[in-house]
Fold this sequence. Notes:
With 1019 residues, this protein is an alpha/beta fold.
Amino acid sequence: MQTSDLESRTQEIGRDLFARARRAEKxxxxxxxxxxxxxxxxxxDEQLKAQLxxxxxxxxxxxxxxxxxxxxxxCLGTVRARLPPGAGLALKMLPDDGWLGSRAAALTRSNTRxxxxxxxxxxxxxxxxxxxxxxxxxxxxFTIDLLGEAVLSATEAERYQxxxxxxxxxxxxAAADWPTNxxxxxxxxxxxxxxxxxxxVKLSSLFSQFDPIDPAGTSAMVRIRLRxxxxxxxxxxxxxxxxxxxxxxxxxxxxxxxxxxxxxxxRDWADVGIAIQAYLRxxxxxxxxxxxxxxxxGTPVWVRLVKGAYWDYETVIAAQNDWPVPVFxxxxxxxxxxxxxxxxxxxxxxxxxxxxxxxNIRSIAHALAxxxxxxxxxxxxxxxxxxGMADPIKAALVELGHRVRIYTPxxxxxxxxxxxxxxxxxNTSNESFLRAGFLENLPEEQLLMNPLELLRRKRHAxxxxxxxxxxxxxxxxxxxxxxxxxxxxxxxxxxREEARQSMRRALEEVRARLGGSIPLVIAGRRIETGKTIDSxxxxxxxxxxxxxxxxxxxxxxxxxxxxxxxxxxxxxTPVERRADLLSGSAHVLxxxxxxxxxxxxxxxAKQWREADADVAExxxxxxxxxREMLRLARxxxxxxxxxxxxxxxxxxxxAVTIAPWNFPLAILCGMTAAALxxxxxxxMKPAEQSAVVAAKLMEVFEEAGFPPGVVNYLPGVGExxxxxxxxxxxxxxxxxTGSRAVGLVIQKQAAQVYEERGQDHIKRVITELGGxxxxxxxxxxxLDEAVHGIVASAFGYAGQKCSACSRAIVLSPIYDAFLARLxxxxxxxxxxxxxxxxxxxxxxxxxxxxxxxxxxxxxxKGEAKLVYAADVSSLAEQxxxxxxxxxxxxxxxxxxxxxxxxxxxxxxxxxxxxxxALAIANGTKYALTGGVFSRSxxxxxxxxxxxxxxxxxxxxxxxxxxxxxxxxxxFKLSGTGPKAGGSDYLPQFMVARTVTENTLRRGFAPTEVxxxxxxxxxx
Length: 1019
Ligand SMILES: Cc1cc2nc3c(=O)[nH]c(=O)nc-3n(C[C@H](O)[C@H](O)[C@H](O)COP(=O)(O)OP(=O)(O)OC[C@H]3O[C@@H](n4cnc5c(N)ncnc54)[C@H](O)[C@@H]3O)c2cc1C
């Protein structure tokens, strides 16, 4: 069929479908009042919609009328003015409890449950069987999907697997008695029978550590749990479809699909399928690859072609991370691609059996026209739609003799809420066909328009070219540098194969270079000292990362001399040049990104993502401080007629930067970059454990072009050279990040003024010290998110971050449920070497740390209940491993709750209410980071006000601060305050000078615009 014929046939079929659907709509019962109100409000007002959906999301965990009513008031209170007049008033008057309060709460609950039941077919197996049975009576086939909470542990994954086995077993035995329905069961293409039972499975639910960074390991683990499901399905005659989730999971999902169905046991099984998303730019390429694979396999598979359920999520995640947007940005592009891929599937139906999943009459009509034109008979392919949606369209297709399969979710209301909210969002989205066609009743002509034509018109109207609408979050040109244009360097997306390959290659290359000698660098000269420090890989004790020269006292003196000598010229170097050198350093860091990350993996046992983030942060510091300095370099003017005032900054002199090992590049780079760009000269004293990575930073600064002596590299044993450096009379300032004990000693040492040795200044000290960071878990928190966020905050990089969570303060009503899930989630973390992405927790930094942490755990048993401690004995020979440990019922005054441990040890504490939780949270000497998981707007507001920490995070993990977006640093005994990566930081490295000039000469003074005016005094 010609394109124009295909188009006119599509239009014809579309009009017919509309007519049939409208007839069916008239005869079907309409939606409930609440649904309609929600849809109407939601469509009118995005803010109101967001608040309504937030309330629906939290409702299942609210148990008392007081909780329900107060959440309703809090959620809708902020948008009360936008509610219809009656509703706004009712909300205001709503009592918390009493008869009226209880009635109102019960009504809210029953209405929401009813609405959920519109999209969720059943809550248990007997109900599910009844539901699908009645669908068959209406000539509708089904695929069942089990709704569940996020799978955070092996136990939860096993439960999910068991539920699927139960579901398949139950459905197939019930189905044995069902009469054959040719419309649903007869496969026209093969003239065989299709399975009556069809289930849809989400692979991420089968493995809690499902992670695209390790596709091989993830595939292996998922397949272990998937095979029993497949075996049972095959044996009992059920069909298994694999759902598609977010983009990050797409490649690994496709890989698992191909791997498992190429296994001998399943290779010749045709009753399997996978969902493919047409909103993805990769879609065509993936389908082509799938077709090629299916040819090699020798047995066809089904493809459920969908547009995709995560459009908003994908665009937000891409924007947040500054990654390329994987989805089309125009709805008509998705629609056009859906049609193109429909054509592809119909053409390749011999290997990819088409299941067209859409509620869009245009998309469906196109598929029908295409199938007709290629001679594919009805039921040689099928249509699929969601339960509770587009029932009139389903009826129209059935009337025309097509097989329509209903995606039928089943499960409890609580885990089902996320699904309900997704459906409501979909139905009220601006771009939704169902909204346009059946709620807003737009003209059919418009609804049936060819998406390519729509695109053409839109582009014509906006004047954009073929690719002009691809959202781009590209970087700004460096020529336009200023603080406002700063963008964080994107983290590497390890779900992409190219990224993983680059990292693997870098690890190989660096591995081959381990064990070299590393000299000091003073005034540009390499110096061996005859004394060395061995830097060892904590993951594998037998691996020497580098042999680093250890500075002696004479080297300290030489370094300070070199820095002092270089200072005057560097101070007077134009600030643009200094900023350029920092941007140049960022450039070198970018070029060496994977290599530097690989050094971190070996030397400090950072996992891939952690190491990559550390390099990105170093880049950010360089770019951000370069811009900040250009801003600060402009003198502050306060000019009056006859008087000019300028306040401007100057550097202090020689800065010593003393850095820890846990962010081996970023922190050292940040402190040193700040010192250098402000015009100080610097001596870098890295931690002994990360001196090799620091040497790489020195190389970066040298390559960028910093003159000799301006920056010097002085590794050594802290106790030996630290006091000499800090106390040196020619050192003007010290920037230190590390332990509280050492930080306080430095403060004291630096306070001593050695006038007799020529010291003519008071030293400035910046210290960033530790924390005893807490996360409060409110009684309405989303436990999926809270457990996930706390596990990441407490055990990421084995808890060795000053921002790490070491206390979880949980409100009593959910304490037990939280603790049970937390323990299981932690048990599922795999501990092992950092270079292997299969492991989510690595070793601690060295054996001293290992012993100290192990001892703390031992002693902690006397204070609280040790509810979980990972057994890492099998790794003891290999490296410095301490597995995650969790203490429960920890008393707030105990050492476990008060002292920083700097390892993977978490204290869980119970609080009766938010007052107590806040008192516990604030009840330490530290104030660095903190967090709260809550869905109560009122409680979140209160925690914002009263949880006094430097960095507070709401409903997310508490680690991973980004330069500029989250300037980092705390107060109390957590440090002296100025936030790294924020606008207060650079002024600490400078002194301010003010120059006032009297410009009045004999009664005349120049004005700002260069005129002269008669000064009032002279009149
Ligand atoms: C049986 C069935 C199973 C499904 N399984 C999955 C699955 O496994 N994984 C999955 O991700 N989805 C799945 N979906 C798809 C998804 O849940 C939506 O139902 C579907 O995308 C809606 O498309 P539509 O053609 O019905 O509606 P339409 O209203 O025509 O299209 C809406 C869709 O267009 C896309 N879109 C919206 N705005 C834009 C924009 N600005 N630019 C580009 N594209 C845009 C989005 O994908 C949105 O969902 C499934 C759908 C069905 C019916």
